[in-house]
Design a protein that fits this description.
disordered C terminus; mainly alpha; about 0% strand; globular; about 400 residues
């Protein structure tokens, strides 16, 4: 069982990593591609927002579908959809087609809660924050490798980054179809999921601790997402960075985040517990955003990005671990889909607000506003309770 679980997690890590490399290739290039069509900072924010708007609705759908038919087929469908979106991105002839590519990417990229549910299927409750750090590490490495590739390829041919992302996702879908093992046993799919899933999700929605976790996760995600539409523009405006060097900023951010989520969180959770870690994460999170906004040198900027990556890398898997521990075994996909929806809503509000602030208040203002939001998340986290040990793998925790 241990070897099977390890093999499944290793391949799942590879699956998510390759998907996020494709995402990372495209993300830092979006502002520059949009700028070719005369987009403003606000329109760049909207370009990021539409991706998250689609995820807001699709993430719970994919999560609940995976509770019914299994994790593997949903993951394969999502990867195939991402491949199509990157082809559209590569050949987009107008800003409208860039929006179309982000809509398709939002549909395909909404399967992260399915990957998280896969981990919950094969990981004991007390180890879920560390296990969910696998997804975070894949995110971090994706943002390390992807932006570097995208920045390098952008100087070769404008269509090359999108086509490489498409090829990676298509190959990944094929490998997942052949090699990825299903984690959800047949007896927990289909009729049992339909019969018990929605009522249990509704009960969870009235749980004050669940609402608090979702609120904390939402606020931290808002603060984090101010980077998406503005970091490339910030580097260009304040330090004269081109697309390649802007990509390296995302790579630096991702590398630190990967190390924190993939290794450090796994060691910290048994010692401190998820609830305390979420609260402590607010300190480097806020400090990092303030340092970025006020950065007068590249060294200060990198220091701020490092602190921010540390705070985010601790907060996210810890919060998702708390959310998963309060859900029963039959509704992991649906519950984590709610978390993804909260994150998607945040990634709508954050980029839009950041784009408007960038245009109207100055290049550093999105990060100072993000710091205020992150401080609010840390304050809300003071009311989080650490769950007791579960009585059984299939029952939700009650603190």
């Amino acid at each position: 069982m241990g070897a099977t679980r390890s093999t499944g997690l290793s391949f799942l890590f590879l699956t998510v990593l390759v998907d996020l490399v494709g995402f990372g290739i495209v993300l830092p290039l979006l502002p520059f591609y949009a700028d070719r069509f005369g987009a403003t900072g606000t329109e760049v924010g909207l370009l990021v927002l539409v991706y998250s708007l689609i995820q807001l609705f699709m993430a719970p759908f994919w999560g609940r579908l995976s509770d019914r038919i299994g994790r593997k087929p949903v993951l394969v469908l999502g990867l195939a959809g991402s491949a199509v979106s990157y082809v559209v991105f590569a050949f987009a002839p107008s800003l409208t087609w860039l929006y179309v590519s982000r809509i398709l990417a939002g549909i395909g990229g909404s399967t992260i809660p399915v990957a998280e549910a896969y981990i919950a299927d094969v990981t004991p409750p007390e180890g879920r924050a560390g296990g969910l750090g696998v997804i975070g590490a894949a995110f971090g490495l994706g943002f390390t490798i992807g932006p570097a590739l995208g920045g390098a390829l952008s100087g070769v041919d404008p269509v090359a980054p999108g086509l490489l992302a498409a090829v990676l996702c298509a190959l990944n879908a094929g490998l997942a179809l052949v090699l990825l093992r299903e984690s959800l046993p047949p007896e927990r799919r289909g009729a049992p999921a339909r019969r018990h899933g929605i009522p249990r999700l509704l009960r969870l929605g009235r749980d004050p601790q669940v609402l608090t976790v979702l609120g904390v996760y939402f606020l931290f995600s808002v603060a984090w997402s101010v980077l998406q539409p503005t970091l490339s523009l910030f580097g260009a405006e304040r330090f004269g960075f081109d697309a390649r060097r802007a990509g390296y900023l995302f790579a630096f951010l991702g590398l630190i985040s990967a190390g924190v989520q993939g290794g450090l969180v796994r060691r910290l959770v048994p010692r401190f517990g998820e609830a305390r870690l979420v609260r402590l994460a607010g300190l480097p999170f806020v400090a990092g955003l303030v340092a970025i906004g006020g950065a007068g040198s590249v060294g200060v900027l990198l220091g701020g990005l490092g602190l921010l990556a540390l705070g985010y890398g601790i907060a996210v898997p810890s919060a998702l671990g708390l959310l998963s521990r309060r859900a029963g075994a039959g509704i992991q996909g649906g519950t984590l889909g709610l978390g993804q929806s909260a994150g998607s809503l945040a990634r709508m509000a954050g980029p839009l607000g950041a784009g408007i602030a960038f245009d109207r208040l100055g290049v550093g203002s999105p990060y100072f506003l993000g710091a205020v939001v992150a401080a609010g998340a840390a304050a809300l986290a003071l009311s989080l309770a650490q769950p007791r040990a579960e009585r059984s793998a299939g029952e939700p925790v009650r603190a």
